[in-house]
Structures are given as structure tokens and as C-alpha cells.
Amino acid sequence: MREGQPTAVHREAYAAPAFCIDTVDLTFDLDPTKTRVLNKMRLHRNPDVAAQPLRLDGEDLNLARVLVNGGGTSFKMDGGQLVLENLPEGPEPFDLEIFTTCNPEKNTQLMGLYVSQGTFFTQCEAEGFRRITYFLDRPDVMASYTVTLRADKNKYPVLLSNGNLVEQGALDDGRHFAKWLDPHKKPCYLFALVAGQLVAREQRITSRSGTEHLLQVFVRPGDLDKTEHAMNSLMASVAWDEARFGLPLDLERFMIVATSDFNMGAMENKGLNIFNTKYVLANPATATDMDFGNIESVVGHEYFHNWTGNRITCRDWFQLSLKEGLTVFRDQEFSQDMAGVASARAVKRIEDVRVLRTVQFAEDAGPMAHPVRPDSYVEINNFYTVTIYEKGSEVVRMMQTLVATPEDSLGRAGFAKGMKLYFERHDGQAVTCDDFAQAIADANPGSALAQNLSTFKRWYSQAGTPRLQARGVYNAAERSYTLTLKQSCPATPDQASKLPFVIPVTLGLLNRDGQALPLQRAGTADSALQQTLVLTEASANFTFANIDSEPVPSLLRGFSAPVVLEDGLNANDLLILLAHDSDPFNQWEAGQRLMMQSAVQALTQDITGPVLSDELVTALRNVLRHPGLDAAFKDLALTLPSENYIADQLSVVDPQRVHALREAMRLQLATALQADWQWAWDAHKHNGAYSPDAQSSGRRALSGLAMGMLCIAAVQSGDDVTPGRVYQQFKDAGNMTDRVNALSALVVSGHALSHDALERFHKLFQHEALVIDKWFALQAGAPDRAGDVLPRVRQLMKHADFSLRNPNRARSLIFSYCSANPAGFHRTDAAGYVYWSEQVLALDAINPQVAARLARAMDRWSRLAEPYRSAAQVAIERVAAKADLSNDVREVISRALN
Ligand code: 0A1
Ligand code: ZN
């Protein structure tokens, strides 16, 4: 990995494998410092590819023996690969046996086989299997696996791998074994094993079609009381995939195992999902509503991969979004369906779009911008990005929108037909994004997708966030309204100019009283209150007939395409949408746009005095007090755009000014609406039993926001009574959501009680790792009042509970500071950047994947104002100067400096 110059891999260079692996028989003698791996494979030459040597990938392995058809053979090593040149010729299968050892305890990068708290785990996606044995480590080589695990019975009583347990028993010397057989062929990135002291929550289920399955959630002893929600989420996922897509569970047994040392969220290994504890363990005392929601969606996500990813997998890693974008789309739909009523679904949609716009749009505008299907990469681990995942999901969502018909206005039935065809054509194969799009289009002939498929696929090949400009002209004499839509897309690192995208624009028109107007396209008969226009060219006009007065357009409803909309609406138009739009997404968006307009004006025109107009404050009060709106929606509508999102609207960013401005806006809202916040807090407090459902979590969210606002106003006016009450709620809280909201209200307002509260919180939860992560994150993310956050972060690095080796802990402290606390991080003395460079280098020596993620905290350095910009450059160059950087960090840093 650190040998030689990193070289880029190119999508165009794809070549089918020269050999196929039919069966793999693996035997593991598990030992923390020296695990022996016997790998017996049956291979044959790929008849479609010219004869060539067999090149097997390997990394950090000790090779002891290679046998071909039971006999010795010559081989050579080339750049880490094991090369076999003298293999039997002809089409007949042959046996290859490879014996290696590895050291799981030394494996701090958590790829391949590693030990976490005395338990063995594996992580093979994307290229970790080569750290277990020599193999064709590529997703288009699919084989049948048999796995035998042998280990000390006392230390490792539970031995798990993919598929079905076919044999187990005792061995000499207190050891035992278990043999697993996976009935499905799979690529090696879906291989997994787990061995250790674990306990399981079990559930037997019967599918719609009558087959029986065993579901298991494995955790460390003592954590069983935190597995109910994960199990419920898993059962719901199984039922949902069958109901919505007709996709049943294809295994007798489906297992989830939790580990506290994991680079990502979770992994969809066939039948044996391995999860970060953060996305499994929850009870009301230790987990927040957000944790409960994340668990539901990650459990769903990994489960849905069983079909989208595992049954049909990726031909090569450039096609990663084939499985990830589609599976995120599926988990988002699942969570929406679980939320239930339309208003709760809309809240989930708003939350998803907020992530897309703050994180993915920023990625698209920075040095790491890449298409949903990249053309090249140096380190594939750097491409598990919000572009592949979240933008990829938006691309799938647009396909659904574009197969809609009058009878199936959302396109769900058409999309499900497309999925059915996709599985009919490709089940058991390793395919491309093109194959997926083709199946959806072919199942819906005549749809807007089928008619524009090749143009639509530019969403896969072109990076960057398109700009959509919309202007409407009302013609009173003709009683018509003509909307002109124009699109463009800014240049990205490897793509200077772009061709037009296919952009579905869902819209409605309102009159100035806020009433919805029927939309009758000139020359057509049907009229509806909402339509989807499809822009396929650089620009187009759309005319609506029978419009009696100048309307207010509500465009891009539900965020129908991942674009930046410039509709030229003024504050009055937006106030109408905020008060009346029937589309909850656009109603929320109108409020955000009004707040953003105020912020950008204040920042660019140096306006002093109150930032938010009286009209806007009144409109927000009306939303807060509205009897017909959900608490969860109100929480989102009254939350200001984040500092990072405000910064994204500016060409030159002074993070301190953005911070000061947002603080001023928040203080204004806190004081102007003080009585309303008091009402909101009182009216939404709830003392009954905890349930994570959408309605009750919405109430907690709004009461939490209200409490935070009240604390801010109180600190401003020197009132200690409110913070005292908040402290009381912190102590009495019946669940973690209310407790953390109270704690965070105190920390954010800077009230003196926050110190006591933090100390008490640590004492109460010192044995709950996931709660201690929250404790670190809260402090690292606290508003920086006197340059005191960085010294506190440095102090916390020395805390007995801190460890750089545990990714969750490193993220909770270091990432919370560098990525989620702009004003604490971007210091005029550059000390934040110095800290960042130290931590990137320290982490790189332990875990390059985590280090590379941290490196990305500086992605947008070049648009910083001075003195930040120059100081940031120096810090990045300091990292770049290190000779033996991992490929992971090297790729991120060199792109940042280019
Ligand atoms: N396929 C997983 C994500 C994942 C990718 C790489 C990993 O290696 C460290 C782990 C997980 C998912 O989409 O959930
Ligand atoms: Zn995934």
C-alpha cells in the first residue's frame, strides 16, 4: 500500500477476468497474532479471454505454500500479486491450494481480518479480501464458498460465516470448529467471518410465501437489552421488500453482528451483516430519536443490499452506485413508509435533501467532485462518497419520477416493473449502471425515461450540480403563464463543459391568496394541481392556459431533481409559499430561502441591525403556532440553515463572519419569539413512555429546539431561572433525547450550569461507549466563545476514555471539531489547521481510511478569505510533504492542492 507511486485505475480499462473461480474452500485456524488460512480453490480459464498468467491479489500476507492439482508449482511475486505462469492449459478446471498466515491483532486499519475487543471480525469491501488470502479480488468473480472455522472454544464460543451452518463439533486442546456453506455464489467482498464471545437476540419469522427464517442479532454479553429496535427494524425490512418489490429473504438464516471498531456504518456481507454498534444498539436511556431513526435506515439499507448488491452485484468498482445509489433510494423509501402519514414522509424527505445539499453539493463544488459513475480513482475507499450514495439515490428517484403515468402519478408501479425486469435479466450477475437504467426504461416503453434514456444517463457520467434558472411571464390578455427553464452546470476538475441533463421539474402554481391553480398546458385538455415538466434541452418554454392573475410558481416540489434552483422569487412570493404551499418540501424551502436571503444580504452588503425582517419573523411565528402542522415539520422550518450551507452560497468565505451572523440571527429568533418558544416547550413536553415513532420524536425535537432558544435568550438577559429548569429536565429526563437536548441547550448557550451537567453526564454514562461519543462530540462542537474549544479538544485527547484507534471515538472528537465546528476550527491563528494536519498524519499511521476522511475537512480551503486561505494551504502542504502517506490520504491531498 505504501510501496511505489500510487497509480490511477480507469473505468475504460475494464477487462473481463482471465480465470473464473468456481468454488472456494477456506479453513481458518483463528489466532489473534497468527491466523492460518488454507484456501483451496477450483478454477477454470475464462474461455472468452486470451490465455495469460493468473495474477492473484494479496496484501500483508505471509505465504507458506502453493499447490496446483496437489503438486508444487513455480510462482513469482509482482507488486504484491502472486503470479502463476505454468498452469494447466485448456478449459478443464484445476485445483489451486494456497496456505498463508496473517496477524489480525496488528490490523489497525480494520480491513481484512481484525480483532476488536477480543472478537474476530472481517471487512472485505472493497478490497479487503486480499488481506485474508491471495485471490482475484474483484467483484465480477463470483464463487461458491465453504468455510471452516477452528478456534479455542472458551475464548471464541461463537463461530459465524456466510450461509448455513452445516457441521460443528469439538477438536483437541479445547478447540472447536464450525463449517458453513453459502448456498449463493458471491464476490469475495461479501465474505465474512466472526468469532468470539457473543450473545444473540433471535426471532423466527414466516414470509408471505410461507418459508421460515431465523433472524439473529449478535452483540457482546450485556448489550442484549439494546437489540430490540434493530430486530424490529430487520423484521420490518424483510416485510417491506417483499411487499413493495416482491423480493423475499433468500436465506434460512440472516445474522447481524455488532462491533465497536468499524470504519463505516455497516456491511452487507451475505447473510452475515457486520454493523458498527452505533447502528445496532439502542434503548431509550442511551440512544436518541436520531439514533433510533438511523438504526432503522441502516438495518434496512444492509438488508436491501441482499438483492441490490448481492444477488446482482457490480461488474467493477466504478459501478459502485449501481448498488449504493439504488440501495439508499430503497432505504429512504422504506423509512418514509415507516414514518407513515404524508406529513411525516415529507419530514424524512426534507432531512434527506438537507444532507444532500449541505454535503453532496459541497463535494460537487470541490476538488473531490466526481460523477456518480467515476472514470478513475487511485484508492477506491475514497469513493464511498455522498455523490455515489446520496446523489446516486436521487438519480434513481428521478427514474421513478420519469416513469410516472396518469394512473401511477409517483411512478412507483412503473419503477417496480423495472426492478422486476432488472432481476429477470441479471439475477446472479455482475453488471453496470447502464444495465440498470436500461431495464427500468425497457419495462416502461413510452415513458419520459425511455424517450430520453441516453441523455438521462449523463447523470451518471457528468459531475457537478446543475443550475436551473426559471422565469415566468404572465400574459393578462391571453390569460396565460409562460415558464422558461434554462440549465447550466459549472465545470468540475476533469470536466470543463457539460451537456444538458434531463431534469424533472414537479410544480404547482398558487395565486396571491395562496390557492392552488389548475395547471392546463396550452393545447392539452387535462388539468391537475401538480405536474412534472421534463427539461431535456439547455432551455425550454412551458405555457399554461386559463390563469386569471399572475401566479407564484412552486417549482421543484419534493426536490424533484438534485439541482440548484434559481427562480428569482422575491421575499413576498416566498412568504406566500411559506404560508400556503401544499407541498411541505417547498413550504419548508421557502422559509429556508428567506432566511438565506437575509443572511447573504447581511454578509455581502454589510447591513447592521436585525437580520431577519419583521415579516419573516411573523411568518415563522405563524408556522410555529400553526395548529395544522406537525411538530417535526415546525422543528425543521424554524431551524436556521447551517453555517456550512450558508458558506456554500458565498464565493469567498470568512467562517468567523458567517458564524457571528448566524449567531445573531439565532439570538434574534430566540428573543423575538420568546413567548412562542415558551409555549412550544410547555406544549410539547411529554412524560409518558418513550416511543421512537415520528409523532413523538417530532414533539421532542420541537421542545428541544424551543428549550435551546429559551436558554440563548435567558443567557442574553441574565436570567438564570430558565437554564435552571433546563438543568432540571436534564437530570429528570426519562430518555436520552430529552437529556441530550437539555445538555446541548446548556452547552450551546454557554451557561455556567453546562460544566456541572457535562460532568454528571460523563459519570452517569461512563460505561456506555456510544454515549461517551456524544459527550466528546458535544464539547468539540460547542460554540467557540473565547478560542477555548481547541484547547479543550487537545485536553480531551488526553482523557482516559479517548482513543485514536477507535474510529467512532476519533470521529466524535476530531471530526466534530474539524468538520462540524467551523468557527472553532477556522482560527485566525491557524491553530485549528495545525491540529488537523497533526491528526491526519497520526491517523494515517493507524487507519488510512479514517485519515483520508479527516483530510477532506479541508476540501473547500481555496474559497476561504485571508488569512485562513494561506494558512490552510500551508497546513495541507505540510501533510503533502510527508513521504510515506497512504494512497488514501495522498489522493485527497493532491486533489486539494491541484
Ligand atoms: N457497502 C457498505 C459500506 C461499506 C464500505 C466499505 C467498508 O469498508 C470499510 C465498510 C462498509 C454499505 O453501503 O453499507
Ligand atoms: Zn450500501
Structure characterization notes:
The protein is α+β, with helices and mostly antiparallel strands. 41% of the residues lie in helices and 21% in strands. It is built from 29 helices and 35 strands. The strands form nine sheets. Strands 2, 3, 5, 6, 9, 12, 14, 15 and 16 form a nine-stranded mixed β-sheet that branches. It has a six-stranded mixed β-sheet with strand order 31-30-33-27-26-35, with no helix packed on it. A hairpin with a 2-residue loop joins strand 10 (112-116) and strand 11. Helix 18 packs parallel to helix 20, helix 20 packs antiparallel against helix 21 (753-764) and helix 22 (769-780) packs parallel to helix 24 (807-820). The radius of gyration is 28 Å and the shape is globular. The model has no long low-confidence stretch (mean pLDDT 97). O-methyl-L-tyrosine is lined by residues 123, 125, 263-268, 301-302, 324, 384. Residues 572-898 form the Peptidase M1 alanyl aminopeptidase C-terminal domain.
